[in-house]
Amino acid sequence: MSPVWRRELRRIVLLLAAALGAGYALQHMLWALTAVVSGYLLWQMLQLFRLHRWLESGQSGRLPRTYGIWGAVFAETRRLQQRSLKHQHKLQGIINRIQDSTAALQDAVLMVDSHGNLEWWNKAAQRFLGLRSPVDVGQPITNLIRDPAFKTYFDAADYREPLTMASPVNPRIHLQFNITQFGRRDRLFLVHDVTRLKQLEQMRKDFVANVSHELRTPLTVLSGYVETMAMAEDQLPPRWGRILGQMAEQSKRMEAIIKDLLTLSRLETSGTEQPAAVDIRALLQQITADARALSQERGHTISLSCDGPAALEGYRDELRSAFSNLVFNAVKYTPDGGEVQVHWQWHDDRPRFCVTDNGIGIDAHHIPRLTERFYRADPSRSKDTGGTGLGLAIVKHVLLRHDGELEISSTPGKGSRFCCSFDPARVCEL
Ligand code: ADP
Questions:
Q1: pTM for this prediction
Q2: 369, 349, 353: which is closest to 320 by C-alpha?
Q3: How many structural domains compose the chain?
Q4: Whether 412 contacts 358, CB under 8 Å
Q5: Ligand 1: which atom is nearest the Cα of residue 359?
């Protein structure tokens, strides 16, 4: 037992003894006992009342002075209060530090509650998004950032990929929004300035486009001379014939690479022209006819089937380029006499273009990288086929511009299937 309790018990015993003594002396035992116990109880009530009043006052005033067990209770309460205050200050310090460091961040940070209303933001958010403190607190974020692309992205609540768009206050600044959900559908925004990256990306695109464009003219001149020399082959020493043949072949390859690089540049930069209804059936008939011409004496069986509505809203030349790359690849990578099937069909409620071949196939580990520029599953074989290594990169870009998806499945030695599926909303009347 603690000394305080021991003292308190001693005090009670003494009081009771005094009450009994006084009762005996006065011949009123019961009255004396009742008076002492009531006095003790009253004193206890008074201490309880003082403690309650002190707690109610928010523990701000001076701690009531008392002694005995109540003195210990008051002192312990004061100690707990001081400890909790110390913790509170420490926590407030941490929160202040986090807020200070977040406020000093170069990136904008915003917190949006589960109803989509703005809760808190830092200085960079003010600069990038034009938010005003405190008037914008509690405003719906979609009222403050009015770009339709942002609204669609925010409402869709699929934040796996970041959104890049121009700043609402300065169209020259490009921002990348990364949104993370936490708690009960609260959202934390991290907005990063990607203007420099965009500029570098643009410089890269311009560089590739300019180099390809500049190389085209000298190459045309060179291959023109090679052709002229090849025509006068009978006047040249015999070994020159083979050399000229190789020169003509390599310059054709370079021309094909430059043509594909220019196509890719166009796909990356164009974007404002209106799409039109494309007659897919006619397009595929033309492509399969071209594929038969490409196959010639290699004897492939090339079939075409077209089911369901066959008109798509898009860009005819781009779709032609994508589909023909896939069909011509099937011919290129299928041994002589093989089979190539071209289908236009509905699959899983989506219109889909598929090319299936029974050619050499592709090892599974190459498949995720096939649409990278100049990536080849088998570089030596691809050189034989005269490929540029850009065909599938073109397909990927065309599909990006048509909200399409590319699926590749293949078994080495058995064949491959390349499918492009489109959004049903793109199906239209001719
Ligand atoms: P390339 O001009 O080399 O054909 P692509 O970008 O069109 O370039 O294709 C990339 C690579 O994918 C090719 O080099 C080839 O290895 C592989 N590939 C594409 N289509 C097929 C196919 N139908 N069968 C087997 N391999 C293919």
A1: 0.71
A2: 353
A3: 4
A4: no
A5: 24
